[in-house]
């Protein structure tokens, strides 16, 4: 157990803010998210159109805006998977399968 430096209220060790007065314990764990660490609608639209942009944005912004960067990465990966599934379904409808050995054999025979 520890005590609040501001009001002396007894706190659990895992608490980072005093439940009595709201004072932070100074460890920095109770910090609120920076107002600059927000997801931009414009960047999300770009990621929706070009999923690889989500991975690129994560790499660029992971240190300065970690929460927003994580969102861009997740959206980019999810859309990448969805695009792959849709493309595979379209290819199957046209008689081609991206992973089939028949398709690979046809490609090798055309060479």
List keywords for this structure.
about 110 residues, 4 helices, mainly alpha, about 50% helix, elongated, two-stranded antiparallel ribbon
Structure commentary:
Helix content is 51%, strand content 4%. It has 111 residues and is mostly helical. The longest helix has 28 residues, at 66-93. The radius of gyration is 25 Å and the shape is elongated. The termini are far apart. The mean pLDDT is 77.
Question: What's the structural blueprint in terms of helices and strands?
Answer:
Layout: E1 2-3, E2 10-11, H1 41-49, H2 52-61, H3 66-93, H4 101-110
Antiparallel strand pairs: 1-2
Helix pairs in contact: 1-2, 1-3, 2-3
Largest sheet data: 2 strands, antiparallel
The SS-based structural class is mainly alpha
Strand content of the residues, in percent? under 5%
- Compute the gyration radius: what is it? 25 Å
What is the number of helices? 4
Mean pLDDT: 77
Assign an overall shape: elongated
Strand order of the largest sheet: 1-2
